[in-house]
Amino acid sequence: MALKIILTILIILVVLLVVLYFVGKKMQKKQAEQEAQIEAAKQTVTMLIIDKKKLRLKDAGLPAAVLEQTPKYMRRAKFPIVKAKIGPQIMSLICDASIFDIVPVKKEVKATVSGIYITDVKGIRGKLNTAPAKKKGKFRSWVDKMQEKAGAKPLK
What we know:
By secondary structure, this protein is α+β, with helices and mostly antiparallel strands. It has helices spanning 2-40, 64-69, 138-150, and strands spanning 43-56, 78-86, 89-95, 108-114, 117-123.
């Protein structure tokens, strides 16, 4: 009896892993296509950054077409939004999360933009401030301390 239950659970887990594998491959292909589209449409633009915040799409002041194309489960998520002056226009743009911390406020920058998506930022006058290093958590500092006592090399 117990053997049947264990076998059933194992079969369900194997089927679940196979399904996740194929879904992951499909999502990876879709992401690669999106990256190619972003690379094809990118332009370098000079802009003055007015403000940056993490906001919901409906509060960000983005065009209605963007809201309609966004999946329903993503509409409530907060996105890194940058308000910038590009030429005479003031626009709200979505920023890449990896560069959001280094985007300077109230400074002029050269940004690589693809549609309304900022993918890269470079300073015009001087260098941009790098993002501050993340503070180590208690567990990470404890692990580093124990490795130091044991004489092991610290993990990166």
